[in-house]
Write a structure and sequence with these properties.
By secondary structure, the chain is α+β, with helices and mostly antiparallel strands. Helix content is 18%, strand content 28%. The protein has a 5-stranded mixed sheet. Strand 4 and strand 5 form a beta hairpin. It starts with a strand and ends in a 21-residue tail after the last strand.
Length: 130
Amino acid sequence: MQIVEYSRWDHRIFCPVTGKPVFNEAMEPDVPTFRALWVEEVIDDPTIASPELAEAWVTYVAREDVVEDGVDLRTFLSGIDQEGWVAFACTWCGLACGPVSETCWVVLDLQMEIDDEDEMDTEAIDSPTQ
């Protein structure tokens, strides 16, 4: 699986297929292309919507070296062979008592065919008048 890395100051991630935000205001997955989410703080407790990916994850974390050495999510995701699936490694940056950052990995199926009701809503953009 391809991993695309980028940094943002906010938590907004948009699905390239639907054009909609991946997460709703409650930070729950809200697009049909969503397959999985790992958050750096709780890397061993992902949200996985795909049965194939869930099975691969269980097998991966059951390995002895993962238990002893910890999760290497880049290696795990790179080993998943699902055509059209892309993992977005999103690092959010901000300030608290100094600079802070957190990375999450969102897996989306970019080859999923979307029904008409799932397609991006388009709005007319008014051009400025002078």
